[in-house]
Design a protein that fits this description.
Elements (H helix, E strand, L loop, with lengths): L5 E7 L2 E7 L5 E6 L6 E5 L9 E8 L3 E9 L3 E3 L8 E10 L2 E2 L3 E2 L3 E2 H4 L6 E7 L2 E7 L8 H4 L4 E8 L7 E6 L3 E4 L7 E9 L13 E4 L8 H22 L1 H8 L7 H4 L5 H8 L21
Antiparallel strand pairs: 1-2, 3-4, 4-7, 5-6, 5-8, 8-9, 8-10, 8-11, 12-13, 13-16, 14-15, 14-17, 17-18
């Protein structure tokens, strides 16, 4: 007897009755979307956990999609290659051997309005009593956030560390960079950001909480002070080099003195005899070279 077909015989006073129960369909079938992907998920049929395979299909309001998963053993099928436009319904059925269950459909979803927007990435830079917030949008499976939601804005929530109940919020932030000025010096602030898109009824997941500390207001002038000090020292060194260039040159490149015996006047009689002698007249003979002219025969 097949494990997928149960024959239950109920005996009654009037005779025998046979009831055929086929393979149960998958349970909890749901079509979900995160960052514009499209994934169908389900639970296995009740009471059956082994040797099961599944086939799933997806359709929109116009036609059955030419995508799907056939004879898979996993409990999900990814349809993320579809267009971001339109509404979708998916269905799945179970199979064991030659037996298969009935189809079970998911609820209909529309990607633009029903997808869950993931959390943005937030980084902070502190400069004195100012903190710069940099926001990076999550990566979408289809297109990108600004193409799907061109009017999306950010909601920034911030608070002093340990004072979550006194959080402040800034809404309708359009730029991916936001400066918060005139914060309390030497104070640690924490931030979270969400994306708000009017085409989607749900705000995005909140970003991870990131914190940064401000410094004193005087710290803003520290780079300028260091730069001024370095320039002053450089100008001073150049001025000293110009004024004392000769002494510096003599110190770095001292002149070597010749030994006394090389500077003294030679006293050798042979040297003076050679020095005072007349120049000898050179004797030579003239030589003429005549080349033979071979052109005359």
């Amino acid at each position: 007897m097949s494990s997928l077909t149960l024959i239950i015989v109920f005996l009654t006073l009037n005779g025998a009755t046979a009831v055929l129960v086929v393979l149960s369909p998958p349970r909890n079938v749901r079509l979900t979307s995160m960052n514009m992907n499209l994934v169908l998920r389900w639970d296995p049929p009740e009471g059956v956990t082994s040797d099961l395979f599944y086939t799933s299909e997806c359709k929109n309001s116009v036609r059955m999609c030419h995508v799907g998963c056939v004879n898979i053993s996993t409990l999900e099928c990814d349809f993320s290659s579809l267009s971001r436009y339109g509404s979708y319904i998916s269905r799945v059925r179970a199979q064991q051997g030659a037996e298969h269950s009935s189809w079970v459909e998911s609820k209909q979803i529309t990607l633009e309005s029903d997808t869950m927007i993931g959390s943005p990435h937030v980084s902070l830079i502190s400069n004195g009593t100012t903190i710069e917030i940099s926001i990076k949008d999550p990566t979408f499976a289809i297109s990108d956030l600004r193409t799907v939601y061109p009017t999306a804005t950010y909601s920034v929530t911030y608070w002093k560390d340990g004072q979550n109940e006194k959080a402040n919020s800034i809404s309708s932030v359009l730029q991916t960079r936001k400066f918060l000025n005139d914060l309390d010096p030497w104070t640690k602030y924490c931030f979270q950001v969400q994306i708000i898109a009017k085409e989607n009824s749900k705000p995005s997941q909140s970003s991870s909480t990131v914190c940064e500390s401000t410094t004193g207001a005087e710290a803003v002038w520290l780079p300028a002070a260091v730069t001024f000090l370095v320039m002053t020292m450089a100008v001073t060194l150049v001025a000293i080099a110009v004024v004392y260039r000769r002494r510096i040159s003599h110190f770095l490149c001292p002149k070597d003195k010749l030994p006394p015996y090389l500077l003294a006047t030679p006293s050798s009689p042979l040297y003076w005899a050679m020095h005072n002698s007349e120049r000898l007249e050179e004797v030579y003979n003239s030589v003429k070279v005549i080349a033979e002219d071979k052109s005359v025969e």
